[in-house]
From TrEMBL:
Keywords: Hydrolase, Membrane, Transmembrane, Transmembrane helix. The chain crosses the membrane at residues 75-96, 290-308, 320-338. This is LPXTG-site transpeptidase (Sortase) family protein. It holds the Pfam family Sortase. Residues 42-64 have a biased composition (Pro residues). It comes from Leifsonia shinshuensis.
């Protein structure tokens, strides 16, 4: 408290000045509302219902097919599976087929070399004509990583296992013209890179007569001039494969190489260019076992008919156990035979 002398009041009068208090609001004081507590045991109020959705579709009645419709559906499904099987065989399984075939041929050829019974002509040591697929040489091209066993014959069935030697030409290393056909993409694609060979590259061939060396001359395509005829004891090797997009051959490419080692004497040949089978020529298919394809397709159709009839009688599980292996075996055989009908340089 403070005291002052008021000039307007009588002398000596002392007045006191009290502190000013804040004015209270005239209305009631509003503070934060206390939270509402739900009575114990009370149930929460129900939520508002969701807006109605689209009414569910009525259940469809099961589709009942007649035996004829089931048969048609099964045959169409089998055709689709067969096409997929052919594609899988050419794109994937063919490379495994090639590896296995090469290993078997290499083991056989090594044994013949050690026994000095490797063929030096179109016949074996007993004078019997060599069967298609018999190993006759080992071809090595270090610059493109080729190391393949060459087989006798050049049909599509032979080139599945490795490069094939044309029967109407001499063996590699002998005096004269030798021609070897190899695939460009499927079944290992052993000749897929021969177009990269430059003049002067080395090619080595091992036969029953020993080791021979070739030097690449150049690459030829359709329409290019042919090389001059060989003179005397000269030797030449020609590698042939398909050109174009992989698995879609559009032509033939040839790589010629000159024999630079000592020529070996040529063995006896029973096949002439005019008598060479059409299946052994460039880009030809092999219809020699087409009968097996017909039997496989017939077995698939018969198995499908029996499976449709047994489905309603024995149920899906028993029918699947009995007929699935039969259909699978028929499909594998059919896919293999269809692959044989494709070009031998594919």
């Amino acid at each position: 408290m403070s005291t002052t002398i008021d000039g307007g009041s009588p002398a000596g009068t002392v007045t006191e000045k009290l502190p000013v208090r804040p004015r209270r609001p005239s209305g009631p004081v509003r503070g934060p509302r206390p939270p509402r507590r739900r009575p114990a045991g009370a149930t929460p109020p129900p939520r508002p219902p969701k807006p109605p959705r689209r009414p569910p579709a009525p259940p469809r009645p099961p589709l009942v097919l007649s035996p004829r419709e089931q048969l048609v559906r099964g045959i169409v499904a089998l055709l689709a599976v067969a096409l997929l099987g052919v594609a899988a065989n050419v794109l994937v399984l063919s490379h495994i087929h090639h590896l296995v075939g090469q290993q078997i041929a290499l083991n056989e050829f090594r044994q013949e070399l050690s026994d000095a019974t490797a063929p030096v002509g179109e016949g074996d040591v007993n004078g019997v004509i060599l069967a298609d697929g018999s190993p006759v040489a080992r071809l090595t091209i270090p610059s493109i990583g080729v190391d393949e066993v060459v087989l006798e014959g050049s049909s599509s069935g032979v080139t599945m296992n490795g490069p094939g030697h044309r029967r109407d030409t001499v063996l590699p290393g002998q005096a004269g013209q030798s021609v070897v056909l190899g695939r460009a993409a499927a079944y290992g694609g052993p000749f897929s890179r021969i177009q990269e060979l430059l003049p002067g590259a080395t090619i080595t061939a091992i036969t029953g007569q020993g080791k021979s060396t070739y030097t690449v001359i150049g690459v030829r395509y359709a329409g290019d001039p042919t090389l001059p005829a060989l003179q005397g004891s000269q030797g030449r090797l020609t590698l042939v494969t398909a050109r174009g997009v992989p698995y879609v051959p559009a032509g033939v490419v040839r790589v010629d190489a000159q024999l630079v080692s000592t020529p070996k004497p040529a063995g006896a040949r029973a096949t002439a260019p005019l008598s060479l089978p059409l299946a052994d020529r460039e880009l030809a298919g092999d219809p020699s076992t087409v009968w097996l394809l017909v039997f496989a397709l017939q077995a698939i159709v018969v198995a499908e008919i029996l499976a449709v009839r047994s489905l309603s009688r024995f149920g899906l599980r028993k029918t699947w156990i009995v007929f699935a292996p039969v259909l699978l075996a028929g499909g594998v055989i059919a896919a293999d035979q269809i692959s044989r009908l494709l070009p031998n340089l594919l």
